[in-house]
Amino acid sequence: MKIKIIAIICALGFMVSALLTAADMTMYHIPGYYRYQFEGHEVLGDLNRDMDMKNALYAFDEMMEYLRGNRENLNIEVTADGARQEFYNAREKAHLKDVRNIVLKAYRLRFIAALICLISLIYIIIHCKHHQSARFSIRKTFVATCIITNAAFLLIVGIAAVNFDKAFTIFHRVLFANNYWRLNPDESDFINLLPQSFFEQTALVICVIYFVVVAIAVVVTLKLRPRN
Predict the structure, then answer these.
(1) Helical H runs in 69-134?
(2) Helices 135-162 and 196-223, interaxial angle, to 10°?
(3) pLDDT digits (tens, 9 = 90+) for 151-202
(4) At what angle do helices 2-28 and 196-223 cross, to 10 degrees?
(5) What stretch of H or E contains 80?
(6) CA–CA distances in Å: residue 43 to residues 38, 72, 163, 179
(7) Residue 228: its pLDDT value, please?
(8) Residue 44: what are its φ and ψ, rounded to 5°?
(9) Residues 10/120, Cβ–Cβ less than 8 Å
(10) With contact defined as beta carbons under 8 Å apart, do 3 and 140 qualify?
(11) Which of 52, 72, 75, 189 has the least CB density, counted as fewest CB within 10 Å?
């Protein structure tokens, strides 16, 4: 029973770290992702000021660096309407400060989850050396945990996809203790850069990467079954 619990902990740690890594990959490691999104949604035409793609991407890229702790503030100037001016207003800065706190906590959570997964895996490897008969039970528990957990996750994703706008609102109400996230498109060019379709597509990319990683882990685990 103890080794099964360790296998469950290993699987859960793996899935949490995999999901957060999928989010990080999508947000920071797909070349040209934001240019593609901005051009595809023609967001420059929705801005409240005249700005080219270079300045819009600069403001956004610097904001993304701020979110993961590589900038101290959001005092970011761009050229718009033929003059130098700050891109982010006070309300946007307040909201993004909250987002930054969540992102940094997510990085810490990913590290802890990965560490738990690694320690559990090392324990399992050592245990199997002395109890080879437990290998099948460990593999079965790991795979079952992944399948059951992700079946529930898929159900949640499916429900959210039916009414993404409502799910998006609930998501923000759970994560944020204030209403700074309610940005007015007439005043916020930050939100104009990110239409709802952007969040839908980004969530889809994250889920695809995550489920591919989990599927590979499950297949590899099953392939470890010794041949007769």
Answers:
(1) 90-130
(2) 160
(3) 999 999 999 999 999 999 999 999 999 999 999 999 999 999 999 999 999 9
(4) 140
(5) strand 77-80
(6) 5, 27, 23, 24
(7) 45
(8) -60, -30
(9) yes
(10) no
(11) 72
Model pTM score = 0.92
CB 48 within 8 A of CB 191: no
Average pLDDT of every residue of the chain? 93
Nearest CA among 213, 217, 178 for reference residue 96: 178
Residue 108 φ then ψ, to 5°: -65, -40
Q: Which residue intervals of 134-193 are DSSP H helices?
A: 135-162, 164-175, 189-192
Token pair for 87: 């891109």
What's the confidence (pLDDT) of residue 226? 54
Instruction: Report yes or no: 214 and 150 within 8 Å, Cβ to Cβ.
Output: yes
- The average pLDDT across 96-121 equals 97
> Judging by beta carbons within 10 Å of its beta carbon (0-12, 13-18, 19+), is residue 71 exposed, middle or buried?
middle
What one-letter code names the amino acid at 217? A
CB 78 within 8 A of CB 48: no
Sequence-ordered list of residues with C-beta below 8 angstroms from that of 79, at least 6 positions apart, any chain: 51, 52, 55, 85
Q: How many whole angstroms separate alpha carbon 228 and alpha carbon 219?
A: 19
Instruction: Report whether 139 contacts 225 (CB < 8 A).
Output: yes
